[in-house]
Amino acid sequence: MEQKKSKFSNWMRNSITARMLVVGFLLLVLLIPLEFVKSLINERAYRQEEVIREINEKWGNEVLLSGPIVKIPYKVISEEKIFNEKSNSYYTKTKETVENAYFFPDKLNIASKVDTKPLNRSIYESVVYSAEINVKGNFPEIDFSNTDIADENILWEKATVILKTSNLKGIKTTPVVKLDSEALSMTPQYSTEYLNTIQSNNIPDAKEFFTKPLPFSFDLKINGSESLKFLPIGKETDATMKSNWHSPSFDGNFLPEDTNKEISKDGFTATWRVLQINRQFEQSFFGYLPDLSASAFGTKLIIPVDEYQKSERTAKYGFMVIGLTLLVFLLIQLVSKIYIHPFQYVMIGLALVMFYTLLISISEHSNFFKAYAIAAFSVLALITVYSRAILKGFKFPLLICGSLASLYGFIYVIIQLENYALLVGSIGLFLILAIVMFASRRIDWNNES
């Protein structure tokens, strides 16, 4: 029995196959703490999103704004036949309801100046903005002659101007719409829709007002976050946006004009021009006003890839880092005939896993480069010193230190790239495979003694 145990022990210590099986098994075991680290990164990232959402809700969420829309109520008279059971005959009942007609401007010009600033809560940061928006343009002559609405059924005395916006909370100045010589104050209307309604008081002498094209203008100061968008309700809609934010993402149904778009580290300037022919809705609606938010255009004020996203991308390479490092130790063991105990492999693997916890914890209080450098240096020093005690000498520990430093440097370069990450990663992995194949070519894989 003792002889069998001795043979098995010798086979485990000297057999290449046995050592490869042990290292492979330990690699799979080390994936468990690595998954815990990934879960920790996701949990911290989710917490960051929660805090940013709370900050944005208090300051003001994304802003979607329309230009002014003329709203004119009108009567709809319908007849309904009702059966009278007592007289066994039908009689006609006249029913009167009030509906609304909506008219969009011919020309709509929107000029916006967006000043961003960071808001902090604990270790988390959100980017919010204050926007000064100037809107002007003109309404066309309003004529019901092309409809079947009788002139006496049009309630001109109840005509108003409305604005649509997604963010009432962020408005910092009460908008006053100047309609030719009239100044119309605005008040919010109850609504459960995504776009809230702000409505003016009744337009005096509206029937005479709209017998000719009518200019309008208003100014608005509003707080928001994440994005600022506009609805292109003008027959011709022109918009400009200037901001000190350096990382805009132009979003929505229309992109800005390439000739007038400028982006630099100090901010951006963008202009849009949208014609009626470019969108799928008309200039007037009768009976209802549909949700036109799908046609909006504007800018997302995004934060470039943050520390949690970078940490998550780094952790995805954890299997490769642990696997290649253990493989290097295995090749050194096979070449040098130095015995490395499975426990020592586990300690080396856990040290590699600790890199990711150090990275995420330090990056919450510093920039990603500094956190990456500190975490990598700490793990490199720990494994180099530990391998010096295992491998006796300096040649192999320095080889391990160089290999790990190159691997960490390679991964840092990959996560900084966007368009070429896959290409550089594929070439790098090919070179690593070639080096391993070259380094292992002289090992006698048939020696199982």
What's the quick description here?
The chain is of the alpha+beta class and 449 residues long.
Describe this structure in words.
This protein is of the alpha+beta class and about 450 residues long. It has two domains: about 170 residues, no CATH class; about 240 residues, Immunoglobulin-like, CATH 2.60.40. Helices cover about 40% and strands about 30% of the residues. It is built from nine helices and 17 strands. The chain has a 13-stranded mixed sheet with strand order 14-15-12-4-5-10-7-8-9-6-2-3-16. The protein has a four-stranded mixed sheet with strand order 1-11-17-13, with no helix packed on it. A hairpin with a 4-residue loop joins strand 2 and strand 3. Helix 2 runs parallel beside helix 6. The longest helix has about 45 residues. The protein is elongated. Keywords: Membrane, Transmembrane, Transmembrane helix.
How many strands? 17
Predict the CATH topology of the largest domain: Immunoglobulin-like
CATH class of the largest domain: Mainly Beta
The share of residues in helices is 25-40%
Q: Low-confidence parts lasting 5 or more residues at pLDDT below 50? A: none
Separation of termini? 20 Å
Q: Using the alpha-carbon principal axes, give the shape.
A: elongated
What are the SSEs and their pairings?
Blueprint: H1 2-14, H2 16-59, E1 63-65, E2 69-84, E3 89-103, E4 107-121, E5 124-139, E6 160-165, E7 176-179, E8 182-189, E9 196-200, H3 206-209, E10 214-225, E11 227-230, E12 236-243, E13 248-252, E14 262-264, E15 267-275, E16 284-286, E17 297-301, H4 307-315, H5 318-336, H6 342-363, H7 368-391, H8 395-416, H9 421-439
Parallel strand pairs: 1-11, 4-12
Antiparallel strand pairs: 2-3, 2-6, 3-16, 4-5, 5-10, 6-9, 7-8, 7-10, 8-9, 11-17, 12-15, 13-17, 14-15
Helix pairs in contact: 2-4, 2-5, 2-6, 4-6, 5-6, 5-8, 6-7, 7-8, 8-9
